[in-house]
């Protein structure tokens, strides 16, 4: 709902700016709605973080992307634009980290390099295959790019924690296999 909230307040601000060209009232209204927007976003992040930490208590830990070194990454300039602002993302991460620590859930930050370009199943190179979908040229694995990204982040975290990850078992299907968002969650949850 992040984008809905942001768009809604953006439209509201534009209206105020058009109606009131200057003055104290204009400033007050803009501040009021700015504050309201921040509160709603904050509330959203807390709810999301609670849900994530709750799941992590069951499954073992949380892996997050280390965003400090990705300033120039194409992935983030292109992909994060219009989805989540970098600021929002960091903010959400810090709330997750804080809540996780309170519950004793471990959090690891991983370098996001190649998490959207290499196949999480075989390590092959991924290429775009339609809107938001990536496909491996080697094994035919195909998934939404967010699924690919989170899968690779998870693998990196497991490696950092010293957990050996068995190769994913592939259903013997001609022309590769496709993993949807929901299937990915189920798959994640099936490992102990
Ligand atoms: Zn592959």
Which properties best describe this structure?
192 residues; alpha/beta; four-stranded mixed β-sheet; two-stranded parallel ribbon; 6 helices; binds zinc ion
Please specify the SSE layout and strand pairing.
Layout: H1 2-19, H2 24-59, E1 61-65, H3 74-80, H4 86-102, E2 106-110, E3 126-128, E4 133-136, E5 142-144, H5 145-160, E6 178-179, H6 181-190
Parallel strand pairs: 1-2, 5-6
Antiparallel strand pairs: 3-4, 4-5
Helix pairs in contact: 1-2, 2-4
Zinc ion (ZN) binds next to loops.
How would you characterize this protein structure?
The protein folds into 2 domains: 1-110, no CATH class; 114-192, no CATH class. Helices cover 54% and strands 11% of the residues. The protein has helices at 2-19, 24-59, 74-80, 86-102, 145-160, 181-190; strands at 61-65, 106-110, 126-128, 133-136, 142-144, 178-179. A hairpin with a 5-residue loop joins strand 4 (133-136) and strand 5 (142-144). The longest helix is centred in the N-terminal third of the chain and has 36 residues, at 24-59. It is globular. Zinc ion (ZN) binds at residues 119, 121-122, 124, 136, 138-139, 141.
The radius of gyration over CA amounts to 20 Å
Shape: globular
Count of individual beta strands:
6
Helical proportion, percent range: 40-55%
Instruction: Strand order, main sheet: write it out.
Output: 3-4-5-6
The main pleated sheet reads as:
4 strands, mixed
Q: Which cofactors or ions or other ligands sit in this model?
A: zinc ion
Structural domain count: 2
- The proportion of strand residues reads 5-15%
Number of helices: 6
Q: What structural category do the secondary elements indicate?
A: alpha/beta
Low-confidence stretches: none
Average pLDDT, rounded to a whole number, is 84
User: Span between N and C termini?
Assistant: 31 Å
């Amino acid at each position: 709902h992040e984008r809905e909230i942001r768009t809604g307040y953006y439209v509201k601000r534009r209206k105020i700016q058009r109606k009131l060209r200057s003055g104290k009232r204009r400033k007050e209204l803009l501040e009021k709605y700015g504050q309201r927007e921040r509160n709603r976003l904050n509330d959203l992040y807390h709810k999301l973080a609670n849900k994530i930490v709750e799941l992590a208590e069951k499954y073992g830990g949380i892996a997050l992307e280390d965003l400090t070194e990705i300033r120039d990454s194409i992935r983030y300039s292109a992909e994060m634009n219009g989805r989540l602002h970098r600021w929002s993302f960091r903010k959400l991460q810090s709330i997750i980290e804080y809540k996780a620590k309170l519950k004793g859930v471990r959090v690891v930050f991983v370098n996001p390099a190649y998490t959207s370009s290499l196949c999480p199943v075989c390590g092959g190179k991924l290429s775009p295959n339609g809107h938001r979908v990536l496909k491996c040229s080697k094994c035919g694995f195909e998934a939404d790019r967010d699924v690919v990204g989170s899968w690779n982040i998870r693998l990196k975290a497991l490696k950092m924690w010293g957990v050996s990850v068995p190769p994913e078992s592939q259903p013997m299907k001609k022309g590769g296999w496709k993993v949807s968002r929901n299937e990915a969650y189920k798959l994640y949850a099936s490992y102990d």
